[in-house]
Amino acid sequence: MTCSIARAVEMVGDRWTEMILREMFLGSRRFDELQRLTGASPHILSQRLKRLEAEDILTRNLYSERPPRHDYRLTEKGRDLWPVVVALKTWGDRWLDEGKSPPITLTHTTCGKTTEPYLACSACHEPIQAVTSKATISPDMAKERAAALGR
Amino acid sequence: MTCSIARAVEMVGDRWTEMILREMFLGSRRFDELQRLTGASPHILSQRLKRLEAEDILTRNLYSERPPRHDYRLTEKGRDLWPVVVALKTWGDRWLDEGKSPPITLTHTTCGKTTEPYLACSACHEPIQAVTSKATISPDMAKERAAALGR
Lengths: 151, 151
Fold this sequence. Notes:
homodimer; alpha+beta; Arc Repressor Mutant, subunit A; two-stranded antiparallel ribbon; globular
């Protein structure tokens, strides 16, 4: 499977995983807090946390020795999922909330203003959208696709 | 469930759905093409397409009457998922591909350059990241959270 989109979804495209990430970006670190805020059962939460740890998206740390207590923190790989969570939030706020005010509002601490982040082009810094973008497929992926299409 | 992130994931956080969206952004419109390119079974593909149609993310159109043939097109709600797909691609390219060149490269047609889109602040247009953002929770969501935490 050449496509990195498909593999990324395999890793984080799950309701519970996304809710865990949301809570961690909001500052939660402890199992019981994550459990109450996501509404996941202990079994599901523990299974998802183990998977995220195995994928190096978060680390589990001992913060108290007696009694032994752990907390969870995002790694750089985990923190780098922020644009995915923000993109889902932006879409959900726009299309699923029918005129209600969004449950979470973002402020850009650098400028101090309320913000609705958008995608910008790394070359010219102007906004970029599906209609102003063109996708070029790598030779390896093109080969896979031609084979799939029987060409 | 107040959170729009969780509801958005319910709708598109599925490997097959994401692959269908990827293919539609790459220009595929026909069932057989989508089936070959995603590798989904006809049953799975048909089920996902029906769900996306019910959610108004795509429309199914008759393009030939004899024999009857349909194709699928993204609605505005569907096209608006582009930032989600791009965010997943960016993360996957960076963290899952270990130095390989990305399977899909994007060009910004407005400026003509190869681009790696990033999130910019709608107020100051500078880049925004998790560390330079602050989340404010709405009163309704805060109430839900306080109840979940038993406070």
